[in-house]
């Protein structure tokens, strides 16, 4: 046995406590697997006296995570506080400045400051690992940056926000409206303090931007992710999609095209019998496509004490084993700035239009589509009241820019009684 | 850039050629990802003059893989010939003896000699990597030994022989009998030279034994894998299983119980709407369950030039990056000898019995089950001819040992007109 690897853990919420438990309960296993003891020397959290159901008395306590990060008896600084700035950023910078490796679950921080932090880490000869930041317990960062290193990655897709998938699945299964399920999820503690991080697609967008960087060798470009939340999805859309053989998922897609890097996180229709279509509740799924490997699908729990701690400990074990890898797979200085491309690769779209109930309204819609070169695969008019006529259209493959132009023309024509819903149909 | 990593490749079949192509075509990508150039210096195969569609003229040629393995200008010996003994074994031993790392896709070799080879490698301070040996392009060895290193693994399951899954899927979809689909698969070149390696479950059993070793820290124990092939599966069984809401898959299951290590590779019924149930054709799937991560499901192509070469190159990149890991995750000397346990954890079973057509036959069957404490969940008698009555039974959970005893009693009672089919129902 060589010298122990000493961890300092900042943040003792669900995940932090999970990490402490594994280190305490599996000391022998971790030592056998990594060739050296893995120990905790110091911890930090907001409240010292809270009962967390785990014995912390053998560890030094720091009120200030920056002080923890700087301690001489810490080799790896484990940041589990979260937050895109503030103490998380300051403490990680302090850790790197004083020669520590960093393990974090903080996607927001890396989505905004990943490039700068990667440069700092590599200049200091230290690593930043963040398996727990993306798709919970699924070892997707490892698969992408190591297992599939022989591939030109062509596309990465994923359902990576368990809360949104819970809401959409529950709306589907129970036939409950969005607002009601949202409240339910809130009561269950599934939502972030700012729920828009979840339902607005921001959290999942952070994750996608990190995967993109590794997949395509580009600098993290969260600003380039087209974000659309699930707030406008209705039970009617879910029902109609199901009737057409699809499910609605908050799906992230990233691909490098001749025009630049396309990244979008938006509600999409996926075939009901596809792996993505069958995903239920808080489970996450990531699909990776590479020129050699074709397609790999990874599925697992996207959150929770055990799964997220599992990912953190995986990173810790890699460090204990001496594995050293640049933050995003290649040196930060080699990551190229990605030109943001509007997501415009052709796809069929689902349109849910609400028309004023008067003669010729449908003709104007059809004309607007036709004038923009969009042909109709299927159309149906659903239940109908005195003032408005809901019309559902599935288009043939078209570009989003053409569709947007057609929608503008529809709206200008005065026959639309409500804003349209337009969802991409993604075949996997 | 540091010094190049130099590969010697033995075996230039589909996979070998795929590896050569990636190294030639992606030199920049591999160098960026690993921090050093990855090159091929020498190759070996049976026939030098065969046109393989790739330029080999810049590499030294060796007729003898052992000579290749010993070359001074080789850092990593890549063994892609296959075979559980013979040149594969001799050359890997030669490579380790002369200080090379080894990358191989050879599951048969490792299933039989993994422990000895791991000891040799570790004594020499070299690694043996074998991602390509299990589940083709899926980075499952990496997920299990690295990403999930913080878990006590509780169970590993998988569909890991694409040929068997192709045969079963095709029988299901086309309603064709086993013999016909077997011939079809043979003509398509899907079968090993000795087809029993595939349809007898041996190849998949090799793979399961390797995963077991990593999962449970035990010495590879292929002899302890209970093997049952797919040769006796009929279209009638497939149809009946479907009717009951199941699909038949050649499924491997390994778990460490209080009684020892259970490993079985056998046709099972799995729920039709489960990830395993939906697997079609040559695709593989591995399910890993750990105490922290709960359940991870990995899906991808189980064979083929690109996917298998992707796995080989992943291993090569890890070596180029300086990652060093014992062959089975922990040092070979720490792997414990696994006591083989009869696979006896309770499960429901599907029974397809053929009874002689005479009064009281069914009563004897029911009595045999009852006397062994086995209760019946569902029973039906299907189409019926003059001489024999097929009876289908789904039992409640029972142990295989009790079921075997009941089947012995049925056979002794003289009412069975044919050997029974008994398939475990595995809920995932």
Verbal overview:
2 copies of one chain form a homodimer. The termini of chain A are far apart. In chain A, helix 5 runs parallel beside helix 10 and helix 13 (about 360-370) runs antiparallel to helix 14 (about 400-410). In chain A, helix 4 (about 85-95) links the parallel strand 4 and strand 5 (about 100-105). The radius of gyration of chain A is 24 Å and the shape is elongated. With about 425 residues, the first copy, chain A, is α/β, with parallel strands linked by helices. Chain A has 3 domains: about 5-135, 3-Layer(aba) Sandwich (Rossmann fold); about 140-300, Dihydrodipicolinate Reductase, domain 2; about 350-425, 2-Layer Sandwich (Alpha-Beta Plaits), CATH 3.30.70. The model of chain A has no long low-confidence stretch (mean pLDDT about 95). The first copy, chain A, has 14 helices and 16 strands. In chain A, strands 7, 8, 9, 10, 11, 12, 13, 14, 15 and 16 form a 10-stranded mixed β-sheet that branches. The first copy, chain A, has helices at about 15-25, 25-35, 65-70, 85-95, 105-125, 140-145, 160-175, 180-185, 195-200, 200-215, 235-245, 305-320, 360-370, 400-410, and strands spanning about 5-10, 40-45, 60, 75-80, 100-105, 130, 155-160, 225, 245-255, 260-270, 285-290, 295-300, 350-355, 375-380, 390-395, 420-425. Chains A and B meet through helix 2, helix 6, strand 12 and helix 12 of A and helix 2, helix 6, strand 12 and helix 12 of B. Chains A, B: Its EC number is 1.1.1.3. Chains A, B: Belongs to the homoserine dehydrogenase family. Chains A, B: This is Homoserine dehydrogenase.
């Amino acid at each position: 046995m060589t010298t122990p690897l000493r961890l300092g853990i900042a943040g003792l919420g669900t995940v932090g406590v999970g990490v402490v438990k594994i280190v305490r309960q599996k000391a022998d296993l971790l030592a056998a697997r990594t060739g050296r003891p893995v120990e905790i020397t110091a911890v930090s959290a907001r409240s010292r006296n809270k009962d967390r159901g785990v014995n912390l008395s053998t560890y030094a306590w720091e009120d200030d995570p920056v002080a923890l990060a700087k301690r001489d008896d810490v080799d790896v600084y484990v940041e589990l506080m979260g937050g895109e700035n503030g103490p998380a950023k300051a403490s990680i910078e302090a850790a790197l400045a004083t020669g520590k490796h960093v393990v974090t679950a903080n996607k927001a921080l890396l989505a905004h400051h990943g490039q700068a932090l990667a440069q700092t880490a590599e200049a200091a000869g230290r690593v930043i690992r963040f398996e727990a930041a993306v798709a919970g317990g699924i070892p997707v960062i490892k698969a992408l940056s190591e297992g599939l290193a022989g591939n030109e990655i062509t596309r990465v897709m994923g359902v990576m926000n368990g809360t949104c998938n819970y809401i959409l699945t529950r709306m589907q299964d129970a036939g409950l409206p969005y607002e009601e399920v949202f409240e339910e999820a809130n009561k269950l503690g599934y939502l972030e303090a700012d729920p828009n991080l979840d339902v607005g697609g921001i959290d999942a967008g952070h994750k996608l931007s990190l995967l993109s960087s590794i997949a395509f060798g580009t600098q993290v470009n969260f600003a380039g992710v087209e974000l659309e939340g699930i707030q406008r999805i209705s039970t009617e859309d879910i029902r109609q999609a199901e009737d057409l053989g699809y499910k609605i998922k908050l799906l992230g897609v990233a691909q490098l095209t001749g025009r630049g890097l396309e990244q979008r996180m938006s509600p999409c229709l996926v075939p009901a019998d596809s792996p993505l279509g069958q995903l239920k509740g808080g489970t996450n799924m990531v699909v990776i496509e590479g020129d050699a490997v074709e397609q790999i699908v990874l599925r697992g729990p996207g959150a929770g004490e055990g799964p997220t701690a599992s990912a953190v400990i995986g990173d810790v074990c890699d460090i204990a084993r001496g594995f050293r890898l640049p933050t995003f797979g290649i040196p930060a200085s080699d990551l190229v700035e990605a030109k943001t491309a509007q997501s415009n690769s052709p796809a069929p779209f689902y349109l849910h239009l609400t028309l004023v109930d008067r003669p010729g309204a449908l003709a104007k819609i059809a004309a607007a589509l036709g004038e923009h070169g969009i042909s109709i695969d299927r159309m149906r008019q659903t239940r109908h009241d005195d003032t408005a006529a809901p019309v559902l259209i599935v288009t043939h493959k078209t570009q989003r820019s053409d569709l947007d132009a057609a929608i503008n023309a529809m709206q200008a024509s005065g026959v639309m009684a409500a804003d349209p819903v337009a969802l991409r149909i993604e075949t996997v």
